[in-house]
Amino acid sequence: MTRLREAAMAKESKAQRETVARVMEEWKAGRLETSRGTPVESQRQAVAIALHEAGASRDETPARNRANLRRTKAVEAKAGETRDALYAEATRRGIAGRSRMTKAELARALVKG
User: Which pLDDT does position 10 carry in this prediction?
Assistant: First the structure.
């Protein structure tokens, strides 16, 4: 039975594997937080977050999974940019309230908008 189930599972892409590995490393180091900001203590919850961010969740549609992976990769790419670079991009896109935003808020606004 186990072999049959394993054969039916989709293979993860390299980007998905990297994202899962990063999230699990964050969990091991104690830096992984829920959307509410509370630390994640359960390994099962960490795996669920990792699969969601990697776009490999079996509970979501393929389109939603692709969107999750695309959003995660955009946030990871923006993490290395300076606040000034993010601010310049927000200015170019015309995002309101950008002057009062922190670097994290700018990155989030750019992903949403």
Answer: 65
